[in-house]
Amino acid sequence: MTIFVDPAEGPSGLLQVFESCGAMLAAMVGAVPTDRRSFHAYGPSDASGFTVMGVVEVLVHMHDIATALGLPWSPPADLCTGALCRLFPAVPIGDPWPTLLWATGRAELPGRPRRTSWTWDGAPRLADTGPAA
Length: 133
Prior knowledge:
Elements lengths: L9 H22 L5 E2 L6 E2 H23 L7 H11 L8 H8 L30
Antiparallel strand pairs: 1-2
């Protein structure tokens, strides 16, 4: 599903869509059995994978919006660490927020080449008992 915001609605319209999409994700994750597997373009995933994919989408797109508006913004470090551990297990975690931005191709990270393409690993985890991050 792709959702568009009328540009005339401005930043407040975009934030309202983010809030609505977050509520929809939370409702779906709460209603889906933890052992359910579903399709994703990067491979099948489970409830925890889809939950964290949604978290990453919100975090990085909030960054995009804040940057465009010239506003400082950063999410809680533990949320970034959980997302990195679940979806980017091969990425060494330093400072979690800059690392998540680097993992998603949005920023440079000292000592590492800038990513020009990336994917996450939402594959089901055997030890998952529910949504993470």
